[in-house]
Structures
1.
Amino acid sequence: MALMTGEQYIESIRKMNMEVYMFGEKIENPVDNPILRPSLNSVRMTYDLALDPQYKDLMTVVSPYTGEVVNRFTHIHQSTEDLKNKVKMQRLCGQKTAACFQRCVGMDAFNAVFSTSFDIDKAYGTHYHENFKTFLNYCATNDLVVDGAMTDPKGDRSKAPHAQEDPDMYLHVVERREDGIVVRGAKAHQTGATNSHEIIIMPTISMGPDDKDYAVSFAVPMDTKGIFMIVGRQSCDTRKLEGGTMDVGNSEFGGMEALIVFDDVFVPNDRIFMNGETEFAGGLVERFAGYHRQSYGGCKVGVGDVLIGAAAVAAEYNGVAKASAVKDKIIEMTHLNETLYCCGIACSSEGTQTESGNYMIDLLLANVCKQNVTRFPYEIARLAEDIAGGLMVTAPSEKDFRDEKIGKYVEKYLQGTSEVSTENRLRILRLIENLTLGTAAVGYRTESMHGAGSPQAQRIMISRQGNLGYKKKLAKAIAHIEE
Ligand code: SF4
Ligand code: FE
């Protein structure tokens, strides 16, 4: 099968029978729901760009396994060039949506499970890698969106999975059958859940021998019996129900997350990629987290490009674009944003081949990348708010602006420079509000902090990978210290 068009993708999701809940109600038609639709549109962009002649070289690649042209989001990285192109593709998608376009979690899960399933087979003579490759080629050939699900609810953080008071706080096997396993548990903060065809489950932490039932990785269709999703709310989400396009800031695109519950879900044997091999759980987490920390050096940079552009437009509309202090703030925003991009490209350029054949990023540099992402978007957002001015949070609603009686006052008193309409001024301010405080702030701000692991998780990896012993030796050699 060829690549899907954006429209075909939307219709393919419409045909699925997912169980979705939001605001205490079952959502019968997530595809046309006004709160969820913008997030679907963001994923759609990954299809539209793949068919656009201008971007197809970046967005698509020939599969080394089937010889077909596939979307890069379903690709196993074959070189450092592939790793760099992944980051460039993510920056592009961020620029075109100004939101989280969700499809990267599946791509990162593909690449992490690819090498891990190979390693497990080598140690135990299992057939996980073949299972995984069959699943991968099915997703690539049919151009599917896959949710990469790692984060368990975790309950009491001081206790291992098997030691939790409630055994379901980490997803686990509750029954082993001849033809497969039955699992129970949940995965939290799941990006793109309602917009995915399939879901890959991975363990969320390193595990010991007693955690056997929790060391499990597999894939199932998102509408498998027993799976249901509870959509997370976002700041200002109900503005999408008001009908206009101004107050939402970005009326076309968005992101979404959900709590996904696995209420005794059956997984057939040929969809299992790990089942009890506890010593491989930590490595899988490290690889997935590493790839996703690289990802942020692309997607957040693309969204940052839009925010920098919005701040510059707001400055023009306010008549202050030529002020040297404003120009310097834009330079600082650009510097910070490009620093993140440098990190994404650097950890890709320094990537190496794994034994399974795919390419892994440089883990130290990927963790440095994500650590910077926990800081720089906050500073970029601060500067954008500084330039925008307080009106971005005090401006009246679109309904007031359009009102017959008071609209003309909103128009008159909120005018900036005379060349620019009040409506356009309000639109750009609402976009900045959306990115820094509204629905997109989930992806641009808080996800920059906690997505792909909280800051401390990167600091642990930086301390492990930093090779301090070697650095101490260097210092002693220069200082002529002999011990
Ligand atoms: Fe992709 Fe970024 Fe969203 Fe993660 S946060 S899924 S890397 S767009
Ligand atoms: Fe993320």
Note: The chain has a mean pLDDT of 97.
2.
Amino acid sequence: MIDNFQREIDYFRISVTDRCNLRCSYCMPEKGVRWLPASEILTFEEIWQVCREAAALGMKKIKLTGGEPLVRKDIPKLIAMLREIPGITSVTMTTNGVLLAEYMDALVKSGLSAVNISLDTMDAAKYAQITGRDAFSQVMEGLEASVEAGMTTRVNTVLTGEDVEEDWRKLLSLAEKWPVDVRFIELMPIGMGKKQKGYSGEWLLQRIKDEYPDIRGEALRHGNGPAVYYHIPGFAGSIGFINAIHGKFCSSCNRIRMSADGQIKPCLCYGDTLDMKRVVRNGTGENIRSLLKKAVEAKPQGHCFHQKEKISETKEMVSIGG
Ligand code: SAM
Ligand code: SF4
């Protein structure tokens, strides 16, 4: 373990592509993104090299994200490669779920540890409105396939729009029926997220408590991150809150991020990055470790979402990976 890794910086969030098969209104710019040329994207071998050095420094958990990770060709192969790195205890994925049913068998075989499916509503028309694609039933098939395969499955929800009452109620029903954690994430003022109405976790918890007065807080952490969990008697799964804005959890933040073109990002809120692509293409293992240490040391005290003028990140969430 290295110094700031003392703070248990053990979670590496890696974007494997900047491309996506959806266009969620709070994540993707209105005019779409200009895709990075293929030569700019790290190869599987390069991602593996960076992860191997990160693991040597104490990194344990890897999350693959995007854009949409399942649109990256042969992604199960990368998962299997990462699973074999000594010290890596879990490789998980955050996906929109559209291609999940198709990939489920290969993902199970690859050794994927868990899947987070992003789903903001249970209304097919609202889903199409948010994401620009009529793909709600495909996501539900993916969710069902994941549960049936015995994969640890979580649903990540960002509530947006004027009326979210039906959304949160119906999403909760997934945790009632299945052993799936449903986690509500506060909308972050990054890219298009700045322009939309979001809901605080505190507000939502109160609404849920009004409906389910028996809901109880859980002491147990379920995943890699800062979600706080609750359980409703009779439910198969739990309810989580990731209060990215209002519940400032920076002091326990355990992650760094790497974009598809190999830029290491110490904090979501700031645009500063360190160029790992250059190092992995021209340097040694020691150079990679040295840059990772610098990125960990560069982690700021906390985010600045409350002071929007200080947010220096100008990219959209689709190219950051969430
Ligand atoms: N395409 C994959 C997916 O949708 O799960 C992975 C990438 S996506 C950028 C990762 C996560 O970021 C999703 O759960 C999405 O809902 C979330 N996200 C995107 N924009 C956001 C924003 N402005 N605030 C909060 N979460 C956001
Ligand atoms: Fe694509 Fe995920 Fe962003 Fe939606 S949230 S546009 S699915 S990257």
Note: The radius of gyration is 19 Å.
3.
Amino acid sequence: MAIERTFSIIKPDAVERNLIGDILKMITEAGLKIKGMRMIHMSKEQAEGFYAVHKERPFFGELVEYMTSGPVVVSCLEGENAIENYRKLMGATNPEQAEEGTIRARFGQNIQNNSCHGSDAPDTARNEVAFFFNEDELVG
Ligand code: ATP
Ligand code: MG
């Protein structure tokens, strides 16, 4: 299995409830290394660009509103099989369907306010990391 990078967002609902530390603890205990990390408040343009694949979905407007409603923590994570491992650690999109012990089962509020994002494939991981980080910022 190769060392991979993936992209993570601790979403506004989780930052608002002071869960950054709890979620980062789960991430690092899962063996994922933080290569770069930043707290930002996304602009509407950034959120629309980041979630452009969902622009035809009925929830797109609300998703952009939610992702710009408060600060988020973006990070680049690295490890063995990082993309799939982090998706497993997050759990299903809908917290009600997320497996016990996952980030979304523990902290997610509903299908939108589900506390975290993780890339779903190598090409999206590469694009999402590059959307928020320059290579020289990934010093971890
Ligand atoms: P993410 O891309 O954030 O890691 P995901 O891959 O599990 O999540 P996607 O289908 O890519 O899920 O949806 C992106 C985000 O849009 C979800 O994480 C959630 O915040 C929101 N979302 C997804 N489905 C719905 C829905 N039916 N209603 C409202 N919001 C939704
Ligand atoms: Mg997704």
Note: The beta strands are 3-10, 33-40, 72-80, 116-118.
